[in-house]
Amino acid sequence: MATANMNTPISAANESNRFHLFKYAAPNNFYSLAGRLIPWVTVLAALLTIVGVYIGFFVAPTDFQQGDAYRIIFLHVPAAWMSMFIYMVMAFWAAIGLAFNTRMSSMMASALAPTGAMFTFLALWTGALWGRPTWGAWWVWDARLTSELILLFLYIGFMALQASIDDVRRADKAGALIALVGVINVPIIYFSVQWWNTLHQGSSINMKSAPTMAKTMLLGMLIMALAFWAYTIAITLYRARCIVLEREQQSDWVKAAGEQL
Amino acid sequence: MMYWNSWSDFFAMGGYALYVWGSVVVVAGFMLAEIFLVRLRRKTVLRQIAAQGTTRTRRST
After folding, report:
1. How far, in Å, CA of B48 to CA of B40, rounded?
2. Residue partners of A251: CB distance under 8 A and separation at least 6
3. Which of A10-24, A56-70, A169-183, B13-27 has the lowest mean pLDDT?
4. Is residue B39 included in any domain, yes or no?
Protein backbone atom coordinates (compact mmCIF):
# COMPACT_ATOMS: atom_id res chain seq x y z
CA MET A 1 0.00 0.00 0.00
CA ALA A 2 1.77 3.09 -1.24
CA THR A 3 -0.80 5.67 -0.25
CA ALA A 4 -3.01 5.96 2.79
CA ASN A 5 -6.57 5.51 1.65
CA MET A 6 -9.33 7.93 2.40
CA ASN A 7 -10.98 5.78 5.01
CA THR A 8 -7.87 5.50 7.14
CA PRO A 9 -8.42 6.98 10.58
CA ILE A 10 -6.06 9.75 11.67
CA SER A 11 -4.24 7.64 14.25
CA ALA A 12 -3.43 5.01 11.63
CA ALA A 13 -2.61 7.57 8.93
CA ASN A 14 0.24 8.95 11.03
CA GLU A 15 1.98 5.64 10.92
CA SER A 16 0.88 4.65 7.44
CA ASN A 17 4.46 4.15 6.29
CA ARG A 18 4.89 1.40 8.79
CA PHE A 19 3.17 -1.83 7.85
CA HIS A 20 1.38 -3.39 10.72
CA LEU A 21 -0.47 -6.64 10.91
CA PHE A 22 -3.58 -5.39 12.60
CA LYS A 23 -4.33 -2.59 10.17
CA TYR A 24 -6.93 -4.70 8.35
CA ALA A 25 -8.46 -5.79 11.63
CA ALA A 26 -10.16 -2.38 11.50
CA PRO A 27 -13.43 -2.91 9.58
CA ASN A 28 -13.08 0.31 7.55
CA ASN A 29 -9.59 -0.65 6.34
CA PHE A 30 -10.75 -4.16 5.55
CA TYR A 31 -13.75 -2.77 3.68
CA SER A 32 -11.69 -0.68 1.28
CA LEU A 33 -9.01 -3.36 0.76
CA ALA A 34 -11.63 -6.04 0.04
CA GLY A 35 -13.37 -3.65 -2.35
CA ARG A 36 -10.19 -3.30 -4.37
CA LEU A 37 -9.43 -7.06 -4.36
CA ILE A 38 -12.87 -8.40 -5.34
CA PRO A 39 -12.82 -7.43 -9.07
CA TRP A 40 -9.44 -9.10 -9.63
CA VAL A 41 -10.33 -12.30 -7.80
CA THR A 42 -13.68 -12.45 -9.61
CA VAL A 43 -11.98 -12.24 -13.02
CA LEU A 44 -9.51 -14.93 -11.91
CA ALA A 45 -12.36 -17.20 -10.78
CA ALA A 46 -14.18 -16.75 -14.11
CA LEU A 47 -11.07 -17.49 -16.19
CA LEU A 48 -10.14 -20.57 -14.13
CA THR A 49 -13.71 -21.87 -14.37
CA ILE A 50 -13.72 -21.51 -18.18
CA VAL A 51 -10.36 -23.30 -18.53
CA GLY A 52 -11.27 -25.98 -15.96
CA VAL A 53 -14.66 -26.75 -17.53
CA TYR A 54 -13.09 -26.81 -20.99
CA ILE A 55 -10.43 -29.33 -19.94
CA GLY A 56 -12.77 -31.42 -17.81
CA PHE A 57 -15.75 -31.63 -20.15
CA PHE A 58 -14.22 -31.20 -23.62
CA VAL A 59 -10.57 -32.27 -23.61
CA ALA A 60 -10.24 -35.02 -21.00
CA PRO A 61 -10.82 -38.54 -22.37
CA THR A 62 -13.42 -40.87 -20.97
CA ASP A 63 -12.52 -43.23 -18.10
CA PHE A 64 -12.09 -46.85 -19.15
CA GLN A 65 -13.80 -48.18 -16.00
CA GLN A 66 -16.44 -45.59 -15.13
CA GLY A 67 -17.24 -44.15 -18.54
CA ASP A 68 -18.24 -40.49 -18.64
CA ALA A 69 -19.82 -40.65 -15.18
CA TYR A 70 -16.32 -40.01 -13.84
CA ARG A 71 -16.55 -36.40 -15.13
CA ILE A 72 -18.47 -35.59 -11.94
CA ILE A 73 -15.00 -35.62 -10.36
CA PHE A 74 -14.31 -32.15 -11.77
CA LEU A 75 -17.04 -30.75 -9.52
CA HIS A 76 -17.20 -33.28 -6.70
CA VAL A 77 -13.57 -33.29 -5.54
CA PRO A 78 -13.06 -29.49 -5.62
CA ALA A 79 -16.38 -29.00 -3.78
CA ALA A 80 -15.40 -31.57 -1.15
CA TRP A 81 -11.95 -30.01 -0.69
CA MET A 82 -13.48 -26.56 -0.29
CA SER A 83 -16.06 -27.84 2.21
CA MET A 84 -13.25 -29.00 4.52
CA PHE A 85 -10.83 -26.16 3.83
CA ILE A 86 -13.44 -23.43 4.38
CA TYR A 87 -14.36 -25.01 7.71
CA MET A 88 -10.72 -24.84 8.86
CA VAL A 89 -10.41 -21.20 7.78
CA MET A 90 -13.74 -20.37 9.44
CA ALA A 91 -12.61 -22.02 12.69
CA PHE A 92 -9.28 -20.17 12.46
CA TRP A 93 -10.95 -16.74 12.19
CA ALA A 94 -13.49 -17.66 14.86
CA ALA A 95 -10.63 -18.64 17.20
CA ILE A 96 -8.73 -15.41 16.49
CA GLY A 97 -11.92 -13.45 17.15
CA LEU A 98 -12.42 -15.29 20.42
CA ALA A 99 -8.78 -14.92 21.57
CA PHE A 100 -8.08 -11.31 20.55
CA ASN A 101 -11.62 -9.94 20.59
CA THR A 102 -11.18 -8.67 17.03
CA ARG A 103 -14.57 -7.97 15.47
CA MET A 104 -13.35 -8.32 11.89
CA SER A 105 -12.09 -11.89 12.48
CA SER A 106 -15.51 -12.96 13.71
CA MET A 107 -17.14 -11.26 10.74
CA MET A 108 -14.85 -13.25 8.42
CA ALA A 109 -15.94 -16.49 10.12
CA SER A 110 -19.59 -15.55 9.60
CA ALA A 111 -18.91 -14.64 5.97
CA LEU A 112 -17.36 -18.04 5.25
CA ALA A 113 -20.10 -20.24 6.74
CA PRO A 114 -22.79 -20.03 4.00
CA THR A 115 -20.29 -20.76 1.21
CA GLY A 116 -18.83 -23.65 3.22
CA ALA A 117 -22.30 -25.08 3.79
CA MET A 118 -23.06 -24.73 0.08
CA PHE A 119 -19.93 -26.61 -0.98
CA THR A 120 -20.65 -29.32 1.60
CA PHE A 121 -24.13 -29.77 0.19
CA LEU A 122 -22.75 -29.80 -3.38
CA ALA A 123 -20.13 -32.41 -2.44
CA LEU A 124 -22.93 -34.61 -1.05
CA TRP A 125 -25.21 -33.95 -4.03
CA THR A 126 -22.60 -34.67 -6.71
CA GLY A 127 -21.44 -37.63 -4.62
CA ALA A 128 -24.96 -39.10 -4.68
CA LEU A 129 -25.15 -38.63 -8.45
CA TRP A 130 -21.78 -40.31 -8.81
CA GLY A 131 -22.54 -43.09 -6.33
CA ARG A 132 -25.73 -44.18 -8.09
CA PRO A 133 -24.09 -45.27 -11.41
CA THR A 134 -20.83 -46.54 -9.85
CA TRP A 135 -21.98 -48.16 -6.58
CA GLY A 136 -25.65 -48.65 -7.36
CA ALA A 137 -26.70 -46.50 -4.38
CA TRP A 138 -27.45 -42.79 -3.96
CA TRP A 139 -26.40 -42.95 -0.33
CA VAL A 140 -24.67 -45.35 2.05
CA TRP A 141 -23.90 -44.79 5.72
CA ASP A 142 -20.17 -45.21 5.33
CA ALA A 143 -17.61 -43.21 7.31
CA ARG A 144 -16.74 -40.71 4.56
CA LEU A 145 -20.32 -39.86 3.65
CA THR A 146 -21.55 -39.75 7.24
CA SER A 147 -18.73 -37.47 8.46
CA GLU A 148 -19.33 -35.13 5.49
CA LEU A 149 -23.02 -35.00 6.42
CA ILE A 150 -22.00 -34.09 9.99
CA LEU A 151 -19.92 -31.26 8.50
CA LEU A 152 -23.06 -29.89 6.83
CA PHE A 153 -24.86 -30.00 10.19
CA LEU A 154 -21.94 -28.18 11.85
CA TYR A 155 -22.16 -25.35 9.30
CA ILE A 156 -25.94 -25.16 9.72
CA GLY A 157 -25.55 -25.26 13.51
CA PHE A 158 -23.02 -22.42 13.40
CA MET A 159 -25.30 -20.24 11.28
CA ALA A 160 -28.46 -21.10 13.22
CA LEU A 161 -26.83 -20.38 16.58
CA GLN A 162 -25.47 -17.03 15.38
CA ALA A 163 -28.84 -16.08 13.93
CA SER A 164 -30.62 -16.93 17.19
CA ILE A 165 -28.58 -14.53 19.38
CA ASP A 166 -29.40 -10.84 19.10
CA ASP A 167 -26.17 -9.46 20.59
CA VAL A 168 -23.69 -9.90 17.71
CA ARG A 169 -20.58 -10.17 19.88
CA ARG A 170 -22.20 -12.86 22.03
CA ALA A 171 -23.33 -14.59 18.81
CA ASP A 172 -19.73 -14.48 17.56
CA LYS A 173 -18.43 -16.11 20.74
CA ALA A 174 -21.10 -18.83 20.79
CA GLY A 175 -20.52 -19.56 17.11
CA ALA A 176 -16.77 -19.74 17.68
CA LEU A 177 -17.31 -22.50 20.24
CA ILE A 178 -19.28 -24.65 17.76
CA ALA A 179 -16.71 -23.93 15.03
CA LEU A 180 -13.81 -24.98 17.27
CA VAL A 181 -15.43 -28.11 18.66
CA GLY A 182 -16.37 -29.14 15.12
CA VAL A 183 -12.81 -28.87 13.80
CA ILE A 184 -12.20 -32.41 15.07
CA ASN A 185 -14.54 -33.61 12.30
CA VAL A 186 -12.29 -32.36 9.45
CA PRO A 187 -9.41 -34.84 9.96
CA ILE A 188 -12.05 -37.53 10.53
CA ILE A 189 -13.48 -36.81 7.06
CA TYR A 190 -10.06 -36.64 5.47
CA PHE A 191 -8.66 -39.86 6.94
CA SER A 192 -11.97 -41.78 7.04
CA VAL A 193 -11.09 -43.70 3.88
CA GLN A 194 -7.92 -44.97 5.57
CA TRP A 195 -9.20 -45.56 9.08
CA TRP A 196 -12.34 -47.45 8.14
CA ASN A 197 -13.40 -49.80 5.42
CA THR A 198 -15.43 -47.45 3.26
CA LEU A 199 -17.30 -47.88 0.03
CA HIS A 200 -15.93 -44.46 -0.90
CA GLN A 201 -12.68 -44.82 -2.79
CA GLY A 202 -9.36 -43.70 -1.28
CA SER A 203 -7.75 -40.43 -2.30
CA SER A 204 -6.36 -40.25 -5.83
CA ILE A 205 -3.92 -37.59 -4.71
CA ASN A 206 -1.83 -37.63 -1.57
CA MET A 207 1.53 -36.40 -0.37
CA LYS A 208 3.24 -39.78 -0.29
CA SER A 209 2.82 -41.15 -3.80
CA ALA A 210 2.28 -40.11 -7.40
CA PRO A 211 -1.34 -39.40 -8.33
CA THR A 212 -3.27 -42.38 -9.70
CA MET A 213 -4.96 -40.35 -12.42
CA ALA A 214 -4.32 -39.50 -16.06
CA LYS A 215 -2.51 -36.16 -16.46
CA THR A 216 -5.33 -34.35 -18.28
CA MET A 217 -7.89 -35.47 -15.70
CA LEU A 218 -5.64 -34.37 -12.87
CA LEU A 219 -5.00 -31.00 -14.52
CA GLY A 220 -8.72 -30.38 -15.04
CA MET A 221 -9.47 -31.26 -11.44
CA LEU A 222 -6.73 -29.02 -10.02
CA ILE A 223 -7.80 -26.06 -12.17
CA MET A 224 -11.40 -26.52 -11.06
CA ALA A 225 -10.17 -26.61 -7.45
CA LEU A 226 -8.34 -23.30 -8.00
CA ALA A 227 -11.48 -21.87 -9.65
CA PHE A 228 -13.60 -22.80 -6.62
CA TRP A 229 -10.90 -21.35 -4.40
CA ALA A 230 -10.96 -18.00 -6.22
CA TYR A 231 -14.78 -18.05 -6.23
CA THR A 232 -14.76 -18.60 -2.46
CA ILE A 233 -12.34 -15.73 -1.84
CA ALA A 234 -14.37 -13.35 -4.00
CA ILE A 235 -17.78 -14.21 -2.57
CA THR A 236 -16.51 -14.32 1.03
CA LEU A 237 -14.92 -10.88 0.77
CA TYR A 238 -18.13 -9.58 -0.82
CA ARG A 239 -20.26 -11.06 1.98
CA ALA A 240 -17.82 -9.83 4.65
CA ARG A 241 -18.24 -6.29 3.27
CA CYS A 242 -22.04 -6.70 3.61
CA ILE A 243 -21.60 -7.85 7.22
CA VAL A 244 -19.29 -4.89 7.96
CA LEU A 245 -21.95 -2.47 6.68
CA GLU A 246 -24.75 -4.24 8.55
CA ARG A 247 -22.85 -4.04 11.83
CA GLU A 248 -21.22 -0.63 11.40
CA GLN A 249 -24.23 1.30 10.09
CA GLN A 250 -24.07 3.72 12.99
CA SER A 251 -20.34 4.38 12.79
CA ASP A 252 -18.93 7.67 11.54
CA TRP A 253 -16.94 6.26 8.65
CA VAL A 254 -20.01 4.58 7.12
CA LYS A 255 -22.07 7.74 7.49
CA ALA A 256 -19.23 9.87 6.09
CA ALA A 257 -18.69 7.59 3.10
CA GLY A 258 -22.36 7.87 2.16
CA GLU A 259 -22.91 6.98 -1.48
CA GLN A 260 -19.29 6.11 -2.05
CA LEU A 261 -19.53 2.85 -0.12
CA MET B 1 -8.45 -30.23 -29.10
CA MET B 2 -11.84 -31.78 -28.58
CA TYR B 3 -12.67 -35.20 -27.28
CA TRP B 4 -16.24 -35.49 -28.61
CA ASN B 5 -17.25 -36.39 -32.16
CA SER B 6 -20.49 -34.42 -32.05
CA TRP B 7 -22.58 -32.25 -29.78
CA SER B 8 -25.11 -35.06 -29.34
CA ASP B 9 -22.24 -37.26 -28.08
CA PHE B 10 -21.34 -34.50 -25.67
CA PHE B 11 -24.87 -34.16 -24.31
CA ALA B 12 -25.35 -37.93 -24.06
CA MET B 13 -22.23 -38.25 -21.81
CA GLY B 14 -21.87 -41.92 -22.73
CA GLY B 15 -25.27 -42.71 -21.24
CA TYR B 16 -24.58 -40.90 -17.96
CA ALA B 17 -26.28 -37.64 -18.96
CA LEU B 18 -28.65 -37.62 -15.96
CA TYR B 19 -25.82 -37.96 -13.44
CA VAL B 20 -23.27 -35.66 -15.09
CA TRP B 21 -25.71 -32.89 -16.06
CA GLY B 22 -27.60 -33.32 -12.80
CA SER B 23 -24.33 -32.43 -11.06
CA VAL B 24 -23.37 -29.59 -13.38
CA VAL B 25 -26.78 -27.89 -13.30
CA VAL B 26 -27.11 -28.01 -9.51
CA VAL B 27 -23.53 -26.82 -8.85
CA ALA B 28 -23.86 -23.95 -11.33
CA GLY B 29 -27.34 -23.13 -10.03
CA PHE B 30 -26.23 -22.91 -6.41
CA MET B 31 -23.22 -20.75 -7.23
CA LEU B 32 -25.29 -18.36 -9.35
CA ALA B 33 -27.96 -18.24 -6.64
CA GLU B 34 -25.31 -17.42 -4.04
CA ILE B 35 -23.99 -14.57 -6.18
CA PHE B 36 -27.56 -13.25 -6.60
CA LEU B 37 -28.20 -13.47 -2.85
CA VAL B 38 -25.05 -11.61 -1.74
CA ARG B 39 -25.76 -8.85 -4.27
CA LEU B 40 -29.28 -8.57 -2.86
CA ARG B 41 -27.84 -8.45 0.68
CA ARG B 42 -25.54 -5.58 -0.29
CA LYS B 43 -28.36 -3.66 -1.99
CA THR B 44 -30.53 -4.09 1.12
CA VAL B 45 -27.93 -2.80 3.56
CA LEU B 46 -26.98 0.12 1.28
CA ARG B 47 -30.66 1.09 1.10
CA GLN B 48 -30.88 0.98 4.92
CA ILE B 49 -27.83 3.22 5.23
CA ALA B 50 -29.21 5.67 2.67
CA ALA B 51 -32.52 5.80 4.55
CA GLN B 52 -30.75 6.63 7.81
CA GLY B 53 -28.51 9.33 6.35
CA THR B 54 -30.96 12.20 6.40
CA THR B 55 -28.11 14.61 7.14
CA ARG B 56 -25.62 13.05 4.77
CA THR B 57 -22.20 14.63 4.72
CA ARG B 58 -19.77 14.41 1.83
CA ARG B 59 -16.31 13.06 2.42
CA SER B 60 -13.96 15.92 3.12
CA THR B 61 -10.92 14.63 1.25
Report:
1. 12
2. A28
3. A10-24
4. yes
* Element containing residue A116 per DSSP (H, E): helix A103-135
Q: Which residues 18-57 of B are in CB contact (within 8 Å) with A?
A: 18-20, 22-24, 26-27, 30-31, 34-35, 38, 41-42, 45-46, 48-50, 52-53, 56-57
Please state the ipTM of this predicted complex: 0.87
Question: In chain B, what residues touch A130 (CB-CB under 8 Å)?
Answer: 19, 23
Q: For the CA atoms of A220, A91, B42, A123, what is the dihedral angle to 10 degrees? A: 40
Distance CA B46, CA B49 (A): 5
Q: Is residue B59 part of a domain?
A: no
With respect to residue B60, please indicate whether it lies within any of the assigned structural domains: no
Chain A residue nearest residue B60, CA to CA: A256
What is the mean predicted confidence (pLDDT) over A105-120?
98
User: Is A239 in Cβ contact with B35 (below 8 Å)?
Assistant: no
How many domains is chain B partitioned into structurally? 1
Q: What number of CA atoms fall less than 13 Å from residue A121's CA on the CB side?
A: 15
Which domain covers residue B30, as residue numbers?
16-51
Q: What is the CA radius of gyration of chain A?
A: 21
Q: Compute the average pLDDT of residues A166-194.
A: 95
Each residue's pLDDT tens digit, B1-48: 678 999 999 999 999 999 999 999 999 999 999 999 999 999 999 999
Number of H helices and E strands in chain B, helices first, is: 2, 0
- The C-alpha atoms of residue A116 and residue A120 are separated, in whole angstroms, by 6
